[in-house]
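Structure in, sequence out. Go:
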């Protein structure tokens, strides 16, 4: 019985590894350069949260390409979850949040799959995707 378990585990790990590699390799958007070569570009998104008195909060959705901020979505919500959304091309931070200093919450950058890029208003509004 043990002789069958080890090959099965190795097979499963191989399948998982190959699947992960396929997902990761397909997660970058292809961009054609002027000389006809293909260059892979990736767009990531991360968030920063700031308090807004009284009982409100601001969330910045920061879109980056090659570690450069290309677009910022600001969503300010009150305690009733009524929200106002603003989109700015490039880097942006409202003056009240600059005065606050460091955000009280952050998420790390997450890769946006090419098939999902068009769902992000910030990217389509400013024509930041091919």
């Amino acid at each position: 019985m043990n002789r069958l378990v080890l090959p099965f585990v190795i097979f499963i790990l191989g399948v998982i590894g190959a699947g992960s590699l396929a997902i990761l390799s397909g997660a970058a958007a292809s961009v054609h350069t002027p000389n006809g070569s293909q260059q892979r570009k990736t767009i990531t998104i991360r968030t920063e949260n700031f308090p807004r008195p009284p009982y409100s909060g601001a969330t910045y959705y920061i879109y980056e390409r090659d570690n450069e901020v290309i677009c910022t979505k600001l969503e300010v919500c009150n305690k009733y979850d009524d929200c106002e959304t603003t989109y700015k091309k490039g880097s942006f931070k409202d003056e009240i949040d600059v005065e606050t200093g460091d955000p009280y919450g952050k998420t790390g950058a997450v890769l946006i799959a090419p098939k999902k890029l068009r769902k992000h208003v910030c990217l389509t509004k400013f024509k930041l995707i091919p």
